[in-house]
Amino acid sequence: ALYAGARLQGRGTVLAMDVSYRRLQALKNQARRMGLEGIVRTRQGDFREFPEVVRAKSEEKGRPLLFDRVLVDAPCSGLGVLGKRADLRWRRQPQEIGELKVLQSELLEAAAGLVKPGGYLLYSTCSIEDDENQDQVYAFLEAHPEYSIVEARHRVDPALTSEGGEFLATLPFKHKMDGAFGALMLRAAEPAPALTADLAAPA
Q1: DSSP code of residue 187
Q2: Can you give the pTM of this predicted structure?
Q3: pLDDT at residue number 96
Q4: Catalytic choice (14, 107, 126, 199)
């Protein structure tokens, strides 16, 4: 959120959402130190419930409130960062990974209607497991034909992408860095405004 806010150079806002009050307070404090207090805004809550908030606010305002960009930085197994989090080898249980996959799917579904036509949805994890990464994306695209993949090989070093170049996909044993996944998706264009300021609330 801080990096995105800095990149805006005062020409927009970033709304960061998390269930954790502590993490959001840390973000707000850092945004203040960086001079981004009016740009990076926060809202505490479950993102899966956010579409209802947006729907109600849109009806109140009499216009759709949609976003130019939505990033779903999804909770995941963390199997791409075992080099830094060796404890995950012993703490993760099979049923937890199953629950995480359900949550990832629900978060993507919640994001689907929040992106304005012509806007972008980015899904990311710190996992190297296909079922948390590209399998989630392919299932989402099947359910939402209004979205299409923007190939990562056109945006980042092709050496850091999956076979075929569709996704960002780093592997610790191959790239000597943390394992990570990213999928950028474009929503088919239609005219629509993009607003975020009315949706921020104190955290």
Answers
A1: E
A2: 0.88
A3: 80
A4: 126
d(CA 93, CA 51): 31
Q: What is the pLDDT of residue 198?
A: 57
Contact 131, 171 (CB under 8 A): no
Residue 76 falls in the annotated catalytic set: no
pLDDT < 50: residue spans in the chain: 191-193, 197
pLDDT at 83: 67
Residue 120 β-bridge partners: 69, 186
Q: Which residue has the tokens 């972008």?
A: 120
User: Which tokens in the block code for residue 91?
Assistant: 């703490």
Give percent above pLDDT 90 in the chain: 76
Residue count (the chain): 203
Let me know: does 184 contact 147? Beta carbons within 8 Å. no
Structure tokens at 170: 């780093």
For tokens 């079922």, what's the residue? 131
For residue 65, give the 3-state DSSP assignment.
coil
How far apart CA 5 and CA 176 sit, in angstroms, is 29
Structure tokens at 85: 């989090």
Q: Among the residues of the chain, which ranges form H helices? A: 2-8, 21-33, 50-61, 88-91, 94-112, 134-143, 172-175
pLDDT at 77: 87
Contact 27, 16 (CB under 8 A): yes
